[in-house]
Design brief:
binds manganese (II) ion; single chain; mainly alpha
Length: about 210
């Protein structure tokens, strides 16, 4: 991704995640919400030419390096543009097979079992208050942990490397599930792109 940023296509059809994540939600989420973040990121960068040359993730990982007059706009809209691309890629049709191999071992080492990880992830994602994201990250000690961030903040700003993320903003689920966030998370679990999560874990860097 580089300036001027463009809205990336979804890596599958809008209805491909049915019946778990519905076609209408995907249209609004990608065509309206993510597009809005991309456009507003470009608007903010229009008034900061130096930022146009910078790597978006590096910039968002070090928010203090962004001049104050555009900082909030870039964190909110740059974060929104980037995280949604990760989030849409972290889902796939016929996903949800669960972690395998080294990733499964790492989850077991960090949480005791796959089931404990899943339970904690569900609890944290259900309980998170307000608009934000719940992540599985590689911590600075190499262990996996579950963290949440408000708004569009990136865990990279805390030195954490994300490998899985769920959008818990209401726009991610309200059309289909209304206030039943827990039901949305259960459905989302069926479309997780575990091979990509494993790639992110093994490479320990984000290529999106
Ligand atoms: Mn969203």
């Amino acid at each position: 991704m580089s300036y001027p940023y463009k809205l990336p296509d979804l890596p599958y059809d809008y209805n491909a995640l049915e019946p778990y994540i519905d076609d209408r939600t995907m249209h609004f989420h990608h065509d309206k919400h993510q597009r809005g973040y991309v456009n507003k990121l470009n608007d903010a960068l229009a008034s900061w030419p130096e930022g146009q040359q910078r790597d978006l993730v590096h910039m968002l990982s070090d928010p203090e390096s962004i001049p104050q007059h555009v900082r909030t706009a870039i964190i909110n809209n740059g974060g929104g543009a980037w995280i949604h691309t990760l989030f849409f890629n972290i889902m796939k049709p016929a996903g949800g097979q669960g972690p395998t191999g080294e990733l499964a071992q790492a989850i077991i080492s960090s949480f005791g079992s796959i089931e404990s990880f899943k339970k904690q992830f569900f609890t944290d994602a259900t309980a998170f208050f307000g608009s934000g994201w719940v992540w599985l990250v590689i911590g600075t000690d190499g262990m996996l942990k579950i963290v949440s961030t408000p708004g569009h903040d990136l865990p990279q700003a805390q030195g954490l490397m994300p490998i899985l993320v769920i959008d818990v903003w209401e726009h991610a689920y309200y059309l289909k599930f209304q206030n039943r966030r827990h039901e949305y998370i259960q459905n989302w679990w069926h479309v997780i792109n575990w091979p990509l999560v494993a790639d992110l874990y093994n490479q320990k860097l984000i290529t999106i």
